[in-house]
Specification:
- The structure holds two protein chains of two kinds.
- In chain A, α6 (103-134) packs antiparallel against α11 and α7 (140-149) crosses α9.
- A two-stranded antiparallel sheet of chain A has the order 1-2.
- Chain A has a domain at 104-301: Orthogonal Bundle (MetI-like fold).
- Chain A is 67% helix and 4% strand.
- Chain A contains 15 helices and two strands.
- Chain A is mainly alpha-helical.
- Chain B has two domains: 4-233, P-loop containing nucleotide triphosphate hydrolases (Rossmann fold, 3-Layer(aba) Sandwich); 267-324, Beta Barrel (OB fold (Dihydrolipoamide Acetyltransferase, E2P)), CATH 2.40.50.140.
- Helix content of chain B is 24%, strand content 33%.
- Chain B contains nine helices and 17 strands.
- Chain B has helices at 42-50, 72-75, 92-97, 109-122, 138-150, 168-185, 196-202, 220-225, 230-233; strands at 4-13, 16-26, 31-35, 57-62, 65-66, 77-80, 156-160, 189-192, 205-210, 213-218, 242-245, 256-261, 266-281, 286-292, 295-301, 312-317, 321-324.
- In chain B, strands 6-7-8-3-9-10 form a six-stranded mixed β-sheet, sandwiched between helices.
- Classes of the chains: A mainly alpha, B alpha+beta.
Chain lengths: 312, 331
Amino acid sequence: MSFSITDPSRRQKWIAGILVVTYAIVTLLPLVWIIATGFKTPPDSIAYPPKVFFSPSLEGYVNLFTSRSRVTPEDLAALGPPATWYDAIVRQYDMVITGPSRYGERFLNSVIIGFGSTFLSVFLGTIAAYAFSRFKVPLKDDLLFFILSTRMMPPIAVAIPIFLMYRQLGLNDTHLGMILLYTAVNLSLSVWLLKGFIDEIPIEYEEAALIDGYTRFQAFYKVVLPQAATGIASTAIFCLIFAWNEYAFAVLLTSGDAQTAPPFIPTIIGTGGKDWPAVAAGATLFLVPIMVFTILLRKHLLRGITFGAVRK
Amino acid sequence: MAEVILRNVFKSFGATQALGDVSMTIPDGAFVVLLGPTGAGKTTMLRMVSGLDRPDKGDVFIGGASMQGLTPAQRNVAMVFQQYSLYPHLTVRENMEFPLKSPLLRTKPAEIVRKVAEVAEILQISHKLDNKATALSGGEMQRVSIGRALVRNPAVYLMDEPLSSLDAKLRADLRVELKNIQANLGATFLYVTHDQIEAMTMATHVGVLDRGRLVQFGPPREIYENPVSLYAASRLGQPRINILPADLFGPAPATATHIGLRPEQIRQGEGQEAVVKRVEHLGDQTRLHLTFKSHDLITVTSAHTDLQRDDIVKITPHRPFYFDAAGTRIA
């Protein structure tokens, strides 16, 4: 076998492979367990020793999306045969569906607030980063440091002032309030990340576009933005993950109209016994958008699009 | 096409003065080559005309109109950068269409197709039009970059060492091609190069820049045969002009400190003896490295010379240049 300094040897490849697979198992195991629990029946979910193999049931999902109430066997008999498969599942426990649960609304709130604040963070971050990267901004370094410093303490440290402020402004429990809050927290990350990406785009491209008859804004839009796509995509993923998963502020500032899914999911536990399959189902579905978003943007996460186009 | 005038242009970057009081008139249809070492202000001059940088003082006129406060787009200039700055997210065709599709030109689609095909043909990149710009070799990228300028019909073409990254054959081809294009279009060119042959063959005028000042401006032959200073004389000529103490060959003008001898100003076969140190056969000519009174000098002789190392050659100056202590030519 030939020897090369840069190519890994067969043994190194094996070691690397084993490490990666081990790491994947460790990180994926809880995820697999949650997804599996979502498809168990409540008794299976708390069985000891834990059941790895079980007969799947959609009970968790039905419970997640419905409100139910217990009825007497006589009333149940009077209702006639169940009209749907989910009715059938519920009736095994002497219950009837009384309406949809709030999970759908909460999920939709998460989507609106998560994607709304991500869009706003990335939009503002991109134009701010472009300005910091390309223009002579007075006190540029101090401003950049200030922006970074907003992340130096945990945001929750200012929870009480924000709560009081929001109450005065009428932003408590509103979509707009949560979008603004998450944007404010994410903005420092997005400005700093994007500034790095835009710094790497040689200014020659914009100069060429200016000469080619475009305005500064058109040059930004047609030349800088496509090349910053990689940076914008990865920044968007970071921002979305934060806004999507945020729990503390969501508990504090939302209770009704604008409540997101993270504070809602645990409340399932409180209503009618510890319904773990429903909780797991809620968590599983909650993972989906972020997975889809990341998969959609993954090609932009591969770097190296611009390599070699400008001789340095 | 238009006449370009720089009037008393000053430009500093921080403490460094890039241009100091440069005035120059580029006649309509002229091919002006700027010469000077790195840092002489050549690129800065291009950027002044293009509008990418603004003069601290002074003014630039294109086609008789002051360019003060006008953006690069409003000036209608085309520029080829030293770095081949192709848009990496676009194909070759899209790169070349880019200026034609700008709000400045708004070219009709049929016209765009025709122009791009025509220029691609000239630059021998027709077969690469649908490649990604990043999938080209350096030479191809630079040709696309030139193509992006040539599809337009601007007031002036600005080119910053456009051929420097190409291989010798392509450079020779494109040199002729560019000159033809310029002559056919009657286009005004402002062109920066380090290449002596490019300067001599393409230019109608040469501007010699020295630390931000224009020290001589005129036809290339005039600069070559009648340089105003030691500095201007050493910009052109291959091998370079020999600079020696003024009185080395005999009496010199009173204030002269240096004598300047181009190879054709050294007559062989008469005068005083010099020793051959090295013989370089270049094919079409032969270079002789001589030692004369412990000074080195280089001259040219016939391609088929029999001279060898340590042979003796008699040499004498023929209508040499004399320069004073400040480098100004006095005779």
